[in-house]
Write a structure and sequence with these properties.
Blueprint: H1 2-23, E1 26-27, E2 36-37, H2 41-51, H3 53-69, H4 76-100, H5 104-132, H6 138-187
Antiparallel strand pairs: 1-2
Helix pairs in contact: 1-2, 1-3, 1-6, 2-3, 2-4, 2-6, 3-4, 4-5, 5-6
């Protein structure tokens, strides 16, 4: 029964991620309006914190694939790969640290370090994929790093991390409690 509950919850987190990217999207760096904030990483990271890093990476790949086929279809497989790398970095760092230091302090440390890690990963990712596959000149991408790409990734990850910090404990309790109640009802 637990596997069904876990799979159902993970599917709901993916669905929520896709809904969030559809409904909340806006530019946060005026000089680069094509860089849009969206909170789609929040449910994915919450899933990783609850179910572990490997499951978080599975959530990342599935949500990124659905987003690449729907709302982000214009960026194609490049957008898919870049999204997996950015969200995957957040998931990997935050959930690994949180699962080693299971406390609010571990959550905060994991989220802070994941923000910096994602921002660092997106620098070479943009320099490679945007230049090689999207045809943007290297100098143009390089000139956008400090005024747009780095601040965008840092701001996006910080906003999402702060939101996670506020909602994680309550959501974790609800998910774990429902799982426990389903197990009890099933065993009776």
């Amino acid at each position: 029964m637990f596997k069904v509950k876990k799979m159902t919850t993970m599917a709901m987190l993916i669905a929520l991620s896709v809904i969030l990217i559809y409904t909340i999207r806006f530019p946060i760096i005026p000089s680069a309006p094509f860089l849009e904030y969206e909170p789609a990483d929040i449910p994915i990271i919450i899933g990783a914190l609850i179910y572990g890093t490997v499951n978080g990476l599975i959530l990342t790949v599935v949500a990124s694939f659905i987003q690449a086929l729907t709302v982000s279809s214009a960026s194609g497989w490049i957008g898919f790969v870049m999204h997996v790398l950015s969200t995957g970095t957040l998931v990997l760092v935050s959930s690994t640290i949180y699962h080693r230091i299971r406390s609010f302090k571990g959550l905060v440390i994991g989220l802070i370090l994941s923000c910096f890690a994602m921002t660092l990963v997106m620098v070479p990712t943009n320099l490679f994929f945007t230049v090689k596959f999207l045809g943007v000149p290297y100098e143009a991408v390089k000139s956008m790093l400090i005024p747009a790409i780095i601040p965008f990734n840092l701001l996006k990850s910080i906003i999402n991390s702060v939101a996670i910090g506020f909602v994680y404990k309550g959501i974790r309790v609800v998910i774990k409690e429902k799982s426990h109640n389903m197990t009890i009802k099933h065993n009776v």
